[in-house]
Write a structure and sequence with these properties.
Layout: H1 2-18, E1 28-33, E2 36-40, E3 54-58, H2 73-80, E4 88-92, H3 95-103, E5 124-125, H4 133-142, E6 148-151, E7 155-160, H5 163-186, H6 194-209
Parallel strand pairs: 5-6
Antiparallel strand pairs: 1-2, 1-4, 2-3, 4-7, 6-7
Length: about 210
């Protein structure tokens, strides 16, 4: 199981680089399995990434296999320790999400698929320096009751019950950011009503309960 998790993380991060979400050592991915958390190591160039570069830690942050975890480990830990149903986290610097994050804008209900993230908007966390407790807390607040958010002047983060879910949401968030940016350019953006979003959120709940 351990080697399979590591392979999935390596494959996922390499794919994100291939589709232009990250460059070099940007981005990080983690997976929780039982009491262990598997996360990409710090400063590792993804083109050279292999299973041996995946750090294994306990939920209290203690490193098990002598690899230095990603600089955003505090962010991963605060989410895992507070949301027991979450088992995977994907953080990237994807272009469109980064653009909207630099505008420090939340994504409102301009498209019904915003509801896929758990609410009527996708928040943008207040700015803080990368790798800090302050950033971890701000992102944790922004992602509360959601499965994704933007990180001011930085990028995006998505979470899921599985790595597959977190990865799909990462691509979905990038797509929404691109669409939202172009809608803003028209200055004719029409938002869905709160009641309309309520209907979509309920529909998503019913859909997921059947799958």
């Amino acid at each position: 199981m351990t080697i399979l998790i590591k392979k999935k993380i390596v494959s996922a991060l390499k794919k994100q680089n291939k589709i232009g979400f990250n460059l070099g050592s940007e981005g990080n991915i983690s997976v929780r399995n039982s009491e262990k958390i598997f996360i990409t190591s710090s400063g590792c160039n993804v083109s050279d990434l292999s299973e041996k570069d995946i750090c294994v830690i306990e939920s209290n942050g203690r490193v098990i296999n002598k690899k230095k975890p990603s600089s955003e480990i505090k962010l991963h830990l605060i989410i895992y320790n507070s949301r027991k149903n979450i088992n995977a986290i994907v953080h990237s610097h994807s272009p469109w999400a980064s653009i909207i994050s630099c505008l420090r804008k939340e994504i409102p209900s301009f498209h019904y698929m915003v509801a896929e993230f758990g609410g009527k908007n996708i928040r943008c966390a207040d700015y803080a320096k990368f790798g800090t407790d302050n950033l971890a807390k701000k992102v944790f607040n922004a992602i509360n009751n959601r499965k994704g958010c933007l990180i001011s002047n930085h990028g995006q983060i998505t979470i899921g019950e599985s790595l597959d879910e977190a990865l799909i949401l990462s691509e979905a968030l990038e797509k929404l950011c691109m669409q939202y940016y172009h809608c803003l350019l028209t200055k004719k953006l029409r938002l869905l009503k709160s009641s309309e979003m309520d209907e979509v959120i309920e529909a998503f709940k019913e859909y997921k309960s059947k799958h």
